[in-house]
Write a structure and sequence with these properties.
It is a single chain. By secondary structure, the chain is mainly alpha-helical. Among the domains are: about 50 residues, no CATH class; about 70 residues, Orthogonal Bundle (Arc Repressor Mutant, subunit A), CATH 1.10.10.10; about 120 residues, no CATH class. It contains 14 helices and 7 strands. Strands 3-5-4 form a 3-stranded antiparallel β-sheet. A two-stranded antiparallel sheet has the order 1-2. It has a two-stranded antiparallel ribbon with strand order 6-7. The longest helix is centred in the first third of the chain and has 33 residues. The chain is elongated.
């Protein structure tokens, strides 16, 4: 009877009640669907055997409303009753020139339009107020619709103002440019670099125009780094390690000092071996950075340190020395350079003042 097959027969094992319940459930659903299909087919056949009446039948309320002829409309017209013929048009009227008018009079519609205009006047084009927010929205919409493109100022002016005369074009450009600059400040869109009077909705779509950070312009590390050593009252009195080292050498001038001696001056109470190595490494870096600026490295004895401590002082000393004395001094410096004396530092600022 139906196009779909019936459910499978029940299981052979009658002890499986669950499978039997599922079978009867599917059987009930099968016959329910079959009854629905049969009812639809029966309705279709009855409609073919007994077609409905072709005449339109209305409810009693609709019949009473249609039969009320005396219910006028606001313009004075009446509702036509069922079977009533519409009135004929008025005779052709003659205009002022004596010509016949083949159209009916429209005085009623003219009066209606006049009353509507009186109650709701239509604003003229000059009275229409275009706000700045509307113009910004139009610009954003235009730039968004042209995503991935650069739009010139003149193109955007035509989109906002249309075709203008030369006398109005300059003022329209300035107004549109101010709106574009305002939107750029609010990051609604972006100005295209190296392209005057061009804007785009997203500058990231032009990777070639985005300026890459220049690695050479990165900040160089400071020659006088901030103090990284802690636990010293003398270091806390200075802003940088270089200033603290310069103060130490100035205090011990004219004696030269090694890195360990400077560390002992910063930490008079002593340090552990591990901590002492870290302080020695940090001070060694600061001494190397400040060399030739605040102090000079020397590989000679104290008497020779005075001639090489400062460049200006060494030049002044060389001018006062005789050629014989200079040879003797240089020979002594040459032999003492290999005497195994450790590297020392002496303050060049104090020595230059002493001369």
């Amino acid at each position: 009877m139906l196009n779909f097959p019936p459910p499978p027969p029940p299981p052979i094992d009658a002890s499986q009640l669950e499978n039997l319940a599922k079978y009867y459930s599917s059987l009930v659903d099968y016959y329910r669907r079959a009854s629905e299909i049969a009812a639809q087919q029966l309705t279709h056949v009855e409609a073919l055997l007994h077609p409905p009446n072709a005449e339109l039948t209305f409810s009693s309320e609709l019949e009473s409303w249609l039969s009320s002829r005396e219910t006028p409309f606001p313009n004075g017209n009446k509702v036509l009753a069922i079977g009533e013929q519409p009135p004929q048009l008025s005779a052709m009227a003659a205009d002022e020139n004596g010509q016949k008018n083949f159209y009916p009079s429209n005085s009623g519609s003219t009066q209606l339009c006049a009353s509507l205009e009186e109650n709701n006047p239509i604003p003229s084009k000059s009275e229409t107020v275009v706000t700045e927010e509307n113009l910004l929205f139009v610009l954003a919409t235009e730039l968004e619709s042209n995503r991935g493109k650069m739009l010139h100022l003149d193109y955007l002016v035509r989109k906002l103002k249309g075709d203008l005369d030369d006398s109005e074009l300059d003022s329209a450009r300035e107004e549109t440019r101010s709106l574009l600059e305002k939107g750029t400040q609010e990051q609604k869109w972006f100005a295209v670099p190296d392209s005057p009077d061009c804007w785009t909705i997203d500058l990231s779509e032009f990777p070639d125009l985005v300026k890459q950070p220049n690695s050479s312009s990165s900040k160089q590390p400071s020659k006088n780094p901030r103090i990284t050593l802690v636990g010293s009252e003398r270091l806390d009195c200075y802003a940088t390690v270089s200033e603290a080292i310069a103060a130490c050498l100035e205090e011990h001038y004219p004696d030269s000092m090694t890195t360990l001696q400077i560390a002992d001056w910063f930490y008079p109470k002593g340090l552990s071996q591990v901590r002492r190595q870290k302080v020695h490494a940090a001070l060694g870096k600061s001494l190397s950075d400040g060399n030739n600026q605040y102090w000079r490295r020397s590989y000679f004895t104290f008497g020779v340190n005075r001639s090489v401590c400062c460049l200006n002082s060494s030049v002044a000393l060389a001018r006062r020395e005789s050629p014989i004395a200079k040879k003797i001094r240089l020979s002594k410096e040459f032999f003492r350079a290999f005497s195994g004396i450790s590297s020392c530092f002496i303050c060049s600022i104090c020595f230059s003042h002493s001369w």
